[in-house]
Amino acid sequence: MREQRREVLVAAEAVLVVLLLLLTAWQFVGWASPVVEANAGSPDTLADRMPSFGMGWLMIGLATVGALYAVLQYLGRTQAGLLLLAAVTLLPQGPGVWAHNTLKWGRLVDLGLPLGEGHPLLLTAVLFVASLVGLVILHRVVAMRNLGELLKGMGSNDRERKGVLISESKTLAGIVGICLAVALLLVSGGSVLGRANWLSDTIPWAVLTIGGGASLLLVGFTVLFLRGLHRG
Amino acid sequence: MFPHSLMAWAGLTVLFMVVGLAFGNIVLLTGAVFVFLTILAVASIQPPGQVTIDRKIARAVCWAGDSIEVERTFYAERGIGPIFVHDELPQELEVVDGNNLRVIWKWPGPTTRDLSYRVRFPMRGEFPLPGTTWQSQAPFGVRRTGPAEATPTIVISAVPRVRGITRLNEVRAITKQTRYQGDLAEAGASSSEFRELRPYSPGDPIKLINWKASARGSRGDSLPLVNELEPEGRKAVWIFLDAAAYMDVGNPLGNPMEHTIEAAGSLAQFYLSRGSTIGAYAYNSYGGGELLSPDTGQKQFRRLTQMLTGLKSGPASHDMLQSVEWCKGFLLRLQPEVFIITRLDVYYPRPGEGREPLERFTAAVRRLTAFRQRSRRPGQVRVVHVNPTESNSDPDSPFEGVDLALWESRSLAVDLRRAGVAVIEWDPSGEDFISALVRHMNAYR
User: Fold this and answer.
1) Closest chain B residue to the Cα of A159, Cα to Cα
2) Cβ of A228 and B41 within 8 Å?
3) Cβ atoms A20, A89 nearer than 8 A
4) I need a surface site. Which of A55, A96, B185, B251 has the fewest CB within 10 A?
């Protein structure tokens, strides 16, 4: 029973890692694909793109990353494993995300890379946020697994351990769900404002709205951080 | 202080936000907003606090081997997250029901829980139960409270268990022995047996006046003479306990030391229940010898129990002969029946070792016998040999599997019996002490 619970957490962790690596694969395919014109036909399927990138090498690379992550977890270097996965998951999204800059700044920072448009804005945002959500959940699942091990080592009983882990999972789901909803609300609001005809076209309202909200959150976080520092 | 992982997330998010704002990148800003919201949410949740724990124990003294219920009532006022409640117990103790470590998840609102558990005290001794500590953390482990101690330390005494003595009362041999007049005490109720004449003193019953002797007028003070009677047969018993390190070997729950204590407790309970005076001396104990001044009654039994509870083994630096000298005053005054509880095999002269320990032990026993011979009715000195119950497990030894201690002790017992000492051989693995004593007494009927 006890082992089953641990296996559930390990399985959840494995599923999350696989999902994140699949997201990464998707990003790699989008990043390496030729420019997709908005009005082009529809040869632009994943199956069509794969051969051009070398799907075999991609899969080998991601499998290596997965194996390396597993080894790091086994060795107890959980933070290093998470850092590796965060880098592998987020860095390939850079070009795709960069392609959606609205302020070009005179193309001062044009990297000259053969970047395509990749995915449309909505899909890019969904993939990016999904990666972050996955990483946040993975981070917590690893911590929960460690907490379970700690409780087991301390000799707590099975029922209480299960209760704590279930409650922790519920809290995680609640917080992630609420934060995701609020973030989407903020972005949707910004997007609506950005398209509003009665507002000046010269001001990027979407960026201002979301950026303003984010700045407020930053202030909130700073206050909390300083309180935390003050308490030691 | 927030954990490093949270700060790493915050740093990454600030980077996303700054770059997102600078380049008007909605994707980065969306990600930054989500992570920021998550950080804010987890950082603003307070860990459980305002915790009170009420710990109660039914009694502070129990028998060794008994269990006690530790009642803990937990109350937390605010916060969300897991709370760890822990009673750190001494290693010797065993939790038999419930758990001394409890982990409770607290949702918003006050929470009350019963966190009782039952702990067993497998061996004698004084066991401090340190205060109940608790600590809590908010979900995601971002903020923590404690550890804090919520209750004071409690000390529980596990006193050595004394076997039932009812079987001993049925043995006529030992019953007769207790009436032995050489062991009569100097105080207590009078018997009908004449002892001597003495001058009348206020309070003496009139019926005790010896009119004929008084009429002779041999004394100048004209006081009548009264018959002094022997006090009621109250035996005096002295117990020597060997508490050297060699007694404290093997399983700590059932080694010769524990058996010595059990035997001493049984003897004391038996003789005290018959109104005898009991004194004891534990030699070679930790910090030197421990003396129990002679006395009678239940109060004396409690004192003995207290002494036995705290008894710890020490180096064998104070042998039996020195102990006899140390207690000589009491021994001469009380003329008690003497029990020595030890391991005889440790005195066995092995090749390469001198005979001095054996000779000194024999000298001590002879000296004790000599003390008793000065009394009008000499009695026996009894040596209780507590067998260590562990056979030779050395595979290279030709005696592997042989209980050498038993053979060595038997060899010495023969010599001691020749010297007039009664030896009670007790193998705790095969019988309890009362059975050994009954067997011994029956042999003397």
Assistant:
1) B103
2) no
3) yes
4) B251
pLDDT of B294 over the 80 cut: yes
CB B297 within 8 A of CB B195: no
**pLDDT reading at A173 higher than 90:** yes
Which pLDDT band, with edges at 50, 70 and 90, does A41 fall under?
Answer: very low
Classify residue B48 by its DSSP letter: P
pLDDT at B239: 94
pLDDT, tens digit (0-9, with 9 covering 90-100), for B25-42: 888 888 888 988 888 888
Mutate to test the interface with A, among B4, B18, B33, B85 (most CBs of A within 10 A): B33
C-alpha Rg value of chain B to the nearest Å: 34
Q: DSSP readout, A35-89?
A: P--TT--S---HHHHHHHHTHHHHHHHHHHHHHHHHHHHHTT-HHHHHHHHHHHH
> Are B341 and B406 within 8 A, CB to CB?
no
Residue A230 contacts B where some CB pair is shorter than 8 Å: no
Residue to mutate among A132, A154, A162, with most B CBs inside 10 A, is: A132
E strand residue ranges, B181-326? 190-199, 225-231, 236-242, 277-283, 290-295
| Contact at CB, B99 and A155, closer than 8 angstroms | yes
The residue type of B140 is F
Please name the member of B24, B36, B99 whose beta carbon is closest to the beta carbon of A204.
Answer: B24
Chain A partners within 8 Å of B9 (Cβ): 136, 139
SS3 B54: strand
Assess contact for B101 and B133: CB atoms under 8 A: no
